[in-house]
Amino acid sequence: AQRVTQPEKLLSVFKGAPVELKCNYSYSGSPELFWYVQYSRQRLQLLLRHISRESIKGFTADLNKGETSFHLKKPFAQEEDSAMYYCALSFYGGATNKLIFGTGTLLAVQP
Amino acid sequence: DAGVIQSPRHEVTEMGQEVTLRCKPISGHDYLFWYRQTMMRGLELLIYFNNNVPIDDSGMPEDRFSAKMPNASFSTLKIQPSEPRDSAVYFCASSFSGGPYGYTFGSGTRLTVV
Questions:
Q1: Chain A residue with the nearest C-alpha to that of B101
Q2: What is the pLDDT of residues A31-52, one digit of tens each?
Q3: Cβ-Cβ contacts under 8 Å, A86 against chain B
Q4: In chain A, what is the straight-line distance between the N-terminal and C-terminal CA atoms, in Å?
Q5: CA distance B45 to B59
Q6: A108 touches chain B (CB under 8 A)
């Protein structure tokens, strides 16, 4: 069955430190993976998607099919990065389309 | 476009009462999703529609939950009767032809059942 795992509920780092938010997925087909971010009491926003291979707000994520991972990284954390981060998997089954999320990781960047 | 619009933003109700949450997707989007967010379970997909037709409601927790999409611009999620464990933030999201472009989420409805 399709699954997204984010092993850390909370990640606390100091400003300027590197950040890596872990995400592993389970899917037998070709995955579409995303990172969404939710700032305090705001709506979820798409941060980045693996097919774009882009860097948004200094964050990058590389799909590693061998390890079935899509970890989110940033070399130097900023206080404004503090938010809830969700890894998500989109998959197709015939005519259907679904997006499932991991349980999220709360990133707290300390000054 | 104002984005995905949900109402109300906050709802406090007593146990046993009927609750109706509303969503207006982005014009032109053909998929609509209802998610529930809790601290324990994160984001759970409850149900989704394609072209107003319910495709998968396997995430709906109980028969007390129902969802409709009478037209392309409106959907409701109803809980009847409500229970305290239904307290959560309910998000609606819409997308165009599936996942590659990502989903656009509404601001959510924070439901508290006392």
A1: A49
A2: 889 999 999 878 888 898 887 7
A3: 42-43
A4: 41
A5: 6
A6: no
